[in-house]
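quick q for whoever's on today - can somebody do inverse folding on this one?? i tried earlier but teh output was garbage lol. tokens:
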């Protein structure tokens, strides 16, 4: 994480704002777990045309494990076959990834 934009003071402020707003890992929380978020991730990766400094809605607070899972399975492969950032379902059987077409359905 030692390259632009992550070395800028603008990113550092944005990261702190997101972690203050959402201190718990989004993906873990969807799975019914409580894990402290330590990483702020772009919902749309910069490498795929995402804004390097999006609004807080364009960012996710994640633990290191969930961030690594998303980065290796989605970001580096420019999306995957099913288009999901995160694997798994919540306690009701709904996908935990907000990009999934079934996310949020009752």
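ok took a stab at it. sequence:
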């Amino acid at each position: 994480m030692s390259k632009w934009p992550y070395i800028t003071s603008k990113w550092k402020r944005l990261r702190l704002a997101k972690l203050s707003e959402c201190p718990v890992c989004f993906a873990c929380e969807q799975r019914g777990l409580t894990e402290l978020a330590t990483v702020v991730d772009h919902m749309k990766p910069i490498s795929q045309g995402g804004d390097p400094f999006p609004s807080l809605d364009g960012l996710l607070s994640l633990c290191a494990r969930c961030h690594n899972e998303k980065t290796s399975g989605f970001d580096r492969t420019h999306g995957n076959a099913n288009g999901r950032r995160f694997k798994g379902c919540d306690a009701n059987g709904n996908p935990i990834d907000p990009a999934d077409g079934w996310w949020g359905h009752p």
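fwiw Residues 4 and 52 are 9 Å apart (CA to CA). also Helices lie at 9-21, 26-30, 64-75. so keep that in mind when u check it
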